[in-house]
Amino acid sequence: MKNKKSLTINYKGILIFLIVLFRYLKMQKVLSNSKSNLIFLGIILLVLIIIIRRRILRNINFKWLIFSLIFAFAQLLFLQDVDILLLIAISIIFSEDKDAIKKIIKYFLISLIIIFISTILLSKLGILNYSTISRVIEGNIRVQRNSLGFKHPNEAYVYFFFISIGMYYFSKKKLSYCIVMLIGTFIMYNITLSRTGLICSIAFLLLILFYNKNIKINKYMFIIATVITFLIAIIFGEPNNTINIMLSNRPFLYNYYITNGYIFNLIGNNIIDGVTLDNSFLNLIVGSGLLFYVFYSILYYLSGKLLENDRKLTQIFIIILIYGCIETHALNIGLNFVLIIQMYLLLTKNNKLKELNENE
């Protein structure tokens, strides 16, 4: 008698998709916080189901778990945010998977592609109305920037960028990937006119081509990127500075928040309504407080060294932090799959990475 194959539900893939969707809805403001919180409750229930069914907790580093939970509950209590809690939840359910890193990236990549394509289709059907915005160049000339259904053209490019770096992890031939990435970059730039996206895509291609694996800086990269942010603010922060204009007044606004003391913030949100802060590190300090900046600094310091044995993950890790110097999405758990992997490596006892990507 033949055994019938039972229908299995990919709870982990569904969980990743829900988290990506959860952050997408919050970023796009498609749903109110109360409605998006229902998705969060669904995520927590799904995690509990997986833990109960699989009895997952045997391979957990409880010291790091307790340390992280303290910050997770502080974030929930003081900021009504759940990012650290979600980081912990995903890491726990993948703790016993042999190919956890590949699975995390694969599920994220599929989820991001679904949301990216769905947003474009919904925009074309007229359901999403974020179509075009204008940019004034050279005095009176206006150019149209298409957001492809996202709230802002830069966000459309951000999704393309994270999809691209996810694909890089699974690519076999470096040169072929670079050619395809270059073509995709210029297509997306012509649509969105995202200068920050273009800069980071070109930087990523250069990093792929000229990366020296003997340079071990991962554990210091979070601090280095923060220092770079402060240098950008100090050097290019004047309103009429050419770099400031090219970066749409980002350095000027960085300098404004720094010089006016908004960075001296232990816990809480000091971001001014209507005054955009497109920088992951300043956004963390000003928007969440120095306490949570310290948490992420420790997370990046401890996990950075663990990533150094994987060349591709290291390159992706570095470029995301570079992107964070001019955009807010480096710490977005709905986009940054490497952040999930970092927490996973610290939470699991078997946290030694092997080089997984030798093929060029």
Q: Helices and strands, in N-to-C order? A: HHHHHEEHHHHHHHHHH
Total beta strand runs: 2
Helix count, per DSSP?
15
Report the portion of residues in β strands.
under 5%
Q: Biggest sheet, strands in spatial order?
A: 1-2
Structural class: mainly alpha
**Fraction of residues in helix:** 55-70%
What general outline do the C-alpha atoms trace?
A: globular
Instruction: Note the main sheet.
Output: 2 strands, antiparallel
Stretches where pLDDT is under 50 for at least 5 consecutive residues are: 1-7, 355-360
Determine Rg (CA atoms, Å).
21 Å
Mean pLDDT: 85
Task: Give an overview in words.
By secondary structure, the protein is mainly alpha-helical. The protein is 64% helix and 3% strand. The protein contains 15 helices and two strands. It has helices at 11-28, 33-54, 62-79, 83-93, 100-124, 153-170, 174-192, 195-210, 221-236, 242-246, 250-259, 280-287, 290-307, 311-324, 337-347; strands at 132-137, 141-146. Strands 1-2 form a two-stranded antiparallel sheet. Strand 1 and strand 2 (141-146) form a beta hairpin. It is globular and about 65 Å long. The N and C termini lie far apart (47 Å).
Question: SSE layout and pairings?
Answer:
Blueprint: H1 11-28, H2 33-54, H3 62-79, H4 83-93, H5 100-124, E1 132-137, E2 141-146, H6 153-170, H7 174-192, H8 195-210, H9 221-236, H10 242-246, H11 250-259, H12 280-287, H13 290-307, H14 311-324, H15 337-347
Antiparallel strand pairs: 1-2
Helix pairs in contact: 1-2, 1-5, 2-4, 3-4, 4-15, 5-6, 5-15, 6-7, 6-8, 7-8, 8-14, 9-11, 12-13, 13-15
